[in-house]
Design a protein that fits this description.
It comes from Neoroseomonas oryzicola. InterPro entries: Acyl_CoA_acyltransferase, GNAT_dom. The chain has 286 residues and is α+β, with helices and mostly antiparallel strands. It has two domains: 127 residues, Gcn5-related N-acetyltransferase (GNAT) (Aminopeptidase, 3-Layer(aba) Sandwich), CATH 3.40.630.30; 134 residues, Gcn5-related N-acetyltransferase (GNAT) (Aminopeptidase, 3-Layer(aba) Sandwich). It is 31% helix and 31% strand. Strands 1, 2, 3, 4, 5, 6, 7, 8, 9, 10, 11 and 12 form a twelve-stranded mixed β-sheet that branches. A hairpin with a 2-residue loop joins strand 7 and strand 8. Helix 7 packs parallel to helix 8. The radius of gyration is 19 Å and the shape is globular. 40% of the residues are buried. The model has no long low-confidence stretch (mean pLDDT 93).
Length: 286
């Protein structure tokens, strides 16, 4: 599809110009379809003579607005298209009374970061994508304090998922969990003393995220369980996107042999989230 090709070209061009050799597989647009069904005003496109030149896509939960994607074809960048698309997409936030604006972008993308700062969306939390060949990763033993149980694929999203999100992020994501449970991801629940205290999703490509744990639960212990599950997928690589504030998780990841592949950053109009207890899935889903 044209939008996917623009994403691939724009990301490859940005990484090449900054000496980043990471490649990330394209994912089916399940999440984009869900958000488009809920509110079509979050999607804008830029065209010239019937040819797609760029697009922007945002989603909202309550009064929280998140810019999931804004990509311009490399051949037409620096012509004001990004500014125009961002302004149009922010109309969704204004119309629905958003009290916070947020996004995730590549930390080395100076042009886009400057654009967002001019709109009052500021860098808040560093993120680091770590990855390694699965066979080289040496994880510690599974922590005895946590039990991991699979969640039913395609079944109804348990209410406790939204409760943990509300504790960690400040809002529930029930519809988003329902979508994830229907996409074939491995969905894990973390149980302590018979009660759910966290969750994680693991893709067939060995990527961990999103992952969240309730207060009083060790994020590093949850990360060990999730990465063991990622290794069990038989994927060639395992990967995870860890916040800078999650020191124990970062220490475990590096000791296990994963290496820093790419820096990203969370930007927001005002601070939100407990980033020592949440691992984003990717820049679009958060």
């Amino acid at each position: 599809m044209p939008a996917l090709r623009i994403v691939q070209r724009a990301v490859l061009d940005l990484r090449a110009r900054n000496g980043i050799g990471v490649s990330s597989p394209a994912s089916p647009p399940h999440f984009q379809r869900l958000c488009l069904q809920e509110d079509p005003s979050g999607v804008w496109v830029a065209e010239a003579d019937g040819v797609l030149q760029g697009f922007a896509f945002s989603w909202m939960i309550g009064r929280f607005w998140f810019l999931a994607q804004l990509f311009i074809d490399p051949g037409v960048q620096a012509r004001g298209i990004g500014q125009a698309l961002l302004s149009r997409t922010l109309e969704q936030a204004a119309r629905r009374g958003a009290d916070n604006h947020a996004l995730i972008t590549f930390a080395y993308n100076r042009a886009s970061t400057g654009l967002y700062i001019r709109h009052g969306i500021y860098p808040r939390e560093p993120l680091y994508r770590f990855e390694a060949p699965a066979q080289t990763v040496r994880l510690p033993s599974v922590p005895p304090s946590l039990e991991v149980v699979p969640m039913q694929s395609g079944g109804p999203a348990p209410a406790w998922l939204g409760e943990i999100d509300e504790l960690v992020l400040g809002f529930r994501r029930d519809a988003h969990h329902q979508m994830l449970l229907g996409t074939g991801l491995r969905a894990l629940g973390f149980i302590r003393a018979g009660r759910p205290v966290g969750y994680a999703y693991v893709s067939g490509a060995g990527h961990v995220g999103p992952m969240a744990v309730a207060p009083g639960t060790d994020p590093a212990a949850a990360g060990v369980l999730a990465l063991h599950e990622a290794k069990a997928t038989a994927a060639e690589y395992v990967s995870i996107l860890a916040p800078g504030r999650a020191a124990a998780l970062l220490a475990m990841i590096t000791e296990a042999g994963l290496r820093l592949a790419e820096p990203m950053v969370i930007l927001a109009a005002r601070p939100f989230g407990e980033w020592d207890r949440y691992v984003p899935m990717n820049p679009g889903y958060m």
